């Protein structure tokens, strides 16, 4: 198991910046349903800079690329290089892991499965990708890794990261692409009361729900947004966004979603899918 120790700059908490579902292309003009994803990605990065909120690390929860290219992952790496904080990423259903690996080793992007975040938390990164299909599944090896990581540090609060949502979000077209063996996932999590939250991407919308006594969070994409509670594919008029998570020493997760201001990134609302 690859592990990384993240220093705790603030004595009271560790702060993470979540960026998800960037869907970048090799072509810097590449667009997804009318949104130039490199431009919206950099608009989010600029807004994070403008907010000037300190954070200790970046977590990127999948679908970094749309076209599987090595250049798309390099675009992500080049974008976050404005910051000195480390970045931890995991694959989504649109990602191509050989191309992801081509960017590594990187001084900033850390290939790891377990992060010891300060003195009181651990962050566990899971690979829920099933090659060639949009839904997710955790292999037996991934479930075993999760179990072992949680058992190794029972005194630490835990945040678990994966791309696919491990519960129904309320949109039938999207929920067919959730984590298919969610029961197995929750059987492991249920053994460890120090798991405080599960963080994912994939659904291109904000979600904050208590499930099995654990807070489940999803975060807006840096490009297109999916309309919540929609039976069929539909895009939302909400702007691209990102999330901050403050992990306090006493086990709280203080979190907020931010979005771009204005109407700079309007997608093709008549699209029937992508």
Main features:
alpha/beta, 6 helices, five-stranded mixed sheet, single chain, 274 residues
The SSE string, one letter per element, is: EEEEHEHEHEEHEHHEEEEE
In quaternary terms, these chains amount to: single chain
Count of discrete alpha- or pi-helical segments spanning 4 or more residues: 6
User: What kind of sheet is the major sheet?
Assistant: 7 strands, mixed
CATH C-level: Alpha Beta
Summarize the structure.
This protein is α/β, with parallel strands linked by helices and 274 residues long. It has one domain (3-259): Purple Acid Phosphatase, chain A, domain 2. 21% of the residues lie in helices and 24% in strands.
Q: What does this 3D model show about the protein?
A:
With 274 residues, this protein is an alpha/beta fold. It has one domain (3-259): Purple Acid Phosphatase, chain A, domain 2 (4-Layer Sandwich). The chain is 21% helix and 24% strand. It has helices spanning 37-51, 70-80, 97-102, 140-152, 172-175, 182-189; strands spanning 3-6, 13-19, 31-32, 35-36, 57-60, 87-89, 114-117, 121-125, 157-161, 195-200, 207-211, 214-218, 241-248, 253-259. The strands form 3 sheets. Strands 1-7-8-9-10-12-11 form a 7-stranded mixed beta sheet, covered by helices on one side. A 5-stranded mixed beta sheet has the order 6-5-2-13-14, with no helix packed on it.
């Amino acid at each position: 198991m690859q592990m990384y120790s993240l220093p705790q700059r603030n004595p009271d908490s560790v702060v993470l910046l979540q960026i998800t579902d960037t869907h970048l292309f090799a072509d810097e003009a590449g667009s997804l349903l009318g949104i130039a994803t490199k431009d919206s990605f950099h608009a989010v990065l600029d807004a994070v800079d403008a907010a000037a909120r300190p954070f200790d690390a970046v977590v990127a929860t999948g679908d970094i690329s749309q076209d599987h290219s090595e250049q798309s992952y390099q675009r992500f790496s080049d974008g976050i290089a404005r910051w000195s904080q480390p970045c931890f990423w995991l694959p989504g259903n649109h990602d191509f892991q050989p191309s992801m690996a081509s960017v590594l080793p990187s001084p900033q992007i850390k290939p790891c499965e377990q992060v010891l975040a300060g003195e009181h938390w651990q962050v566990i990164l899971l690979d829920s990708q099933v090659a060639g299909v949009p839904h997710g599944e955790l292999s037996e090896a991934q479930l075993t890794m999760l179990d072992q990581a949680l058992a190794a540090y029972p005194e630490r609060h835990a945040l678990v990261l994966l791309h696919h949502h491990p519960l129904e979000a309320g949109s039938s077209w999207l929920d067919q692409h959730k984590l298919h063996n969610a029961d197995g996932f929750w059987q492991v999590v249920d053994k460890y009361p120090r798991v405080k939250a599960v963080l994912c991407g994939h659904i291109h919308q904000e979600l904050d729900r208590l499930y099995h006594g654990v807070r489940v969070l999803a975060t807006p994409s840096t490009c297109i947004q999916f309309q919540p509670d929609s039976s069929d594919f539909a895009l939302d008029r909400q702007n691209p966004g990102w999330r901050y998570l403050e992990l306090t020493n006493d086990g709280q997760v203080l979190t907020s979603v931010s979005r771009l201001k204005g109407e700079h990134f309007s997608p093709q609302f008549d699209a029937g899918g992508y």
